[in-house]
Amino acid sequence: MAGTKVLRSLLHELRQASPNGCIKDSLAARYILAQYKKFATTEQQFCKARNEATFLGQTYLTYLASQRRYLELYKEYHGRGERSVRDTADLVGFKLPSDPK
Amino acid sequence: MNGKYVVSVIRALRLTNFSQCKGAASSFTVRHYASPPKRFYKKTSVASGDSGYEVVLDHRKLKTPKGTPFIVRSEPLAIAVATEFDAQKENIERSRMHLSALCFTAIDNPNHLSKLDMVNYLLNFIATDTVLFQYDDEKDLQDLQVNEWDPVIAWFNQRYDTNLQKTMNITPPQVSEQDKMNVAKHFQSYSLETLHGFIFAVDTLKSIVLACAVIEQMLTVEKAVALARLEEEYQLKFWGRVEWAHDLSQQELQARLAAAVLFVHLNCSENLVKQKIIL
Fold first, then answer.
1. Of the residues B85, B108, B131, which one is the last residue of a structural domain?
2. What is the C-alpha to C-alpha distance for residues B260 and B174, in angstroms, rounded to an integer?
3. What total of structural domains would you count in chain B?
4. Contacts of residue A10 in chain B, CB cutoff 8 Å?
5. Distance from B2 to chain A by nearest Cα, in Å?
6. B167 & B49 share domain
7. Interface of A with B in 17-56 (CB under 8 A)
8. Which of B25, B57, B144, B258 is the most buried (most CB within 10 A)?
């Protein structure tokens, strides 16, 4: 049942990668589903290496997931330039003169 | 009279001083980065033509940085590139689109590499392969390397009919001419585009043994990256894990390697079928 798990995660990643969060008319999702239907009974019928289709699915899943996690880390840690006065005040627990007491 | 003169001199000095300050301020450099191109399209799709599959952004055809039309022979590859372009938010972040970049490099071949150049590059990498340099001063690390790396080296030797030996010090491992011939024969059987994928994988992992193992499906992508970073992972246990350095590099390497593996597999599915018949 490893195949089903990969399929679900792939669709999940594709949904996260798409700009509007919807994969109804996504080419990749349609292609992957078609491949899964094709190899539903066995993936040996086209003279491919053993488990090649599953391997490719897993590799694509790694690609999408790693890129998403990389972007998350990048957004979290990459420098955004100098902090504003308010950010600095919040950082050390001070209040600005304009803030209510 | 004298006093007036002194005052004017002071004023002149002040002025020159002031202008110097101003000059220094204006020469203070601000680094300007090229802003990434805006996402100028709404929808991406794939069109099939006589020579292969193309990626279409709205109604424009995608072109490579050199200006040649983007045409690949494999449909899933075109779909993956279209999906990658669709995944861009406001800007097109080209440095993070590894699969598209790899396709562009293979189509454009910006360094005008021939097949012989690339095979030679890969062969020269064997002598600096990560997994062949092991370390026996630290018991735990050595155990780890023997348990994790040695089976992969053994697999490589058996698969390609070579006799690579690991080295325990700084002297590079001995690679005989026969070994090089056997490995070269294997790489020569791939097409020029596919070799671009191999080089990308080898450069990512810093190891030709691991790259071949993952492309031949002996290892998964995550496992191969973990093996390439084996010593780093070992040292992390003592010195701590820093998310913005270690995790970031791990995810980046995984994405790069996965792109290379996908590229090689999707580019040479006929090749693999032939191998199966020979075996």
1. B108
2. 28
3. 2
4. none
5. 50
6. no
7. 17-19, 26-28, 31, 47-52, 55-56
8. B258
CATH number at residue B93: 3.30.2180.10
pLDDT of B276 > 50? The answer is no
The CATH number for B208's domain is 1.10.3580.10
Minimum-distance CB partner of A69 among B46, B87, B251: B251
A73–B273 CB contact, under 8 Å? no
Binary contact (B96, A67; C-beta < 8 A) = yes
Asked if residues B86 and B44 have their Cβ atoms less than 8 Å apart, the reply is yes
**Residue B25: its pLDDT value, please?**
46
Angstrom distance (rounded) from CA B227 to CA B144: 10
Q: Does B161 share its domain with B191?
A: yes
Closest-CA residue of A relative to B252 is A70
For residue A67, pLDDT beyond 80: yes
Q: Does the structure show a pLDDT above 60 at A47?
A: no
Q: What range defines the domain where residue B65 resides?
A: 44-108
* Same structural domain, B92 and B212: no
Q: Do B181 and B105 contact (CB within 8 A), yes or no? A: no
B189 and B145 part of one domain: yes
Q: Which of B45, B46, B262 lies at the smallest CB-CB distance from A60?
A: B262
Q: Do both B76 and B147 map to the same domain?
A: no
B123 and B223 part of one domain: yes
Provide the β-strand partners of residue B167: B133
The pLDDT of residue A20 is 82
The answer as to whether B9 is a domain residue is: no
- In the predicted model, is pLDDT for residue B153 greater than 50? yes
HSE of B157, CA atoms in CB hemisphere, 13 A: 14
Instruction: Answer whether A77 sits within 8 Å of B45, measured CB to CB.
Output: no
Q: How many CB atoms lie within 10 A of CB B161?
A: 13
Would the pLDDT of B270 be above 60? no
Tell me, yes or no, whether B202 lies in a domain: yes
Band (pLDDT 50/70/90 cuts) for residue B185 is very high
- B266 to chain A, minimum CA–CA distance in Å? 9
Are the beta carbons of A17 and B254 separated by less than 8 Å? no
Domain limit, last residue, from B108, B126, B157: B108
Asked if B82's CB is within 8 angstroms of A27's CB, the reply is yes
Closest chain B C-alpha to A20 CA, distance in angstroms:
9
